[in-house]
Amino acid sequence: MTMPYKRKTWQEKLEDPKNMPKIVPLEANFPCRRPLEKMGAEIGVSVVLAPPSDVNAIMQSIPKGRLITLSQICERLAAKHGAQYCCTLTTGIFVTIAANAAEEMNSDVPYWRTIKNNGELNSKYPGGAKQQKALLEKEGHTIISKGKKHIRYVVKDFERFLVER
């Protein structure tokens, strides 16, 4: 008899180290190759795949009124693990896991302070970009909408509020 599949909670996903951290050379078939090449990476450079708990710890450290981007999280993870770059794809997935785990556990991780590299809000967060917008406005940030058909929200002058690199 087969056991029914039990879906993992966000907290279980967050606590699963997935055999990470792993430092690997960048290869041509890497899913995150193109974004890393845009940042200057070349085939063969070291890339860290950091565990979700590392991403969560960085997100938890962002003080009220400040913001952090995915690129900044990646820079910190690469430095922490002694790699030249960090996989933006896995880190982006782990940002979403951390946000949903924070909501699920009602924890104090201020996930809404983590934004996309262009200042855009994250529609994959709990409550979508609208909830992130409300939480950021509550902290004093001005959010502007862009687009007519597909509305996106962006933090106005977000660069002024980024944590130090």
Plain-language structure description:
The protein has 165 residues and is α/β, with parallel strands linked by helices. The protein contains six helices and seven strands. The protein has a domain at 11-118. The chain is 38% helix and 13% strand. The strands form three sheets. A three-stranded mixed beta sheet has the order 1-2-4. Strands 3-5 form a two-stranded parallel ribbon. Strands 6-7 form a two-stranded antiparallel ribbon. A hairpin with a 5-residue loop joins β6 (143-146) and β7. α3 (52-60) packs across α5. The mean pLDDT is 95.
Q: Could you write a compact summary of the structure shown?
A:
This protein has 165 residues and is of the alpha/beta class.
List keywords for this structure.
single chain, 165 residues, alpha/beta, three-stranded mixed β-sheet, 7 strands, 38% helix, 13% strand
